[in-house]
Amino acid sequence: MSEERYTPKPGLIETDLGSELILLDPETQEMFSLNPTGRVAWKHLGSESLSGVVDRVVAAFEVERPTADADVRALVARLLEAGLIERAAGPQG
To answer: What SS3 class is residue 21?
Structure first.
């Protein structure tokens, strides 16, 4: 499983509405809304590997691991494209 790690862009403003999480990039003034699955993933992206984030989603939503993995990877791709996260520097394995 992937030990890739990502880190949120510094300076983002988070507004947690419970059922969704709103991210605001003050530089671009763009907003990004995360559903409950995305909210769980976001909360763990900065502190866990991609595999760990998938584990959190599986535990929170009792979803099959392949589905959670696909969902988390799709979210990471969208967040990277939006410039809200970047691949974390760290030891290469």
So the answer is: strand
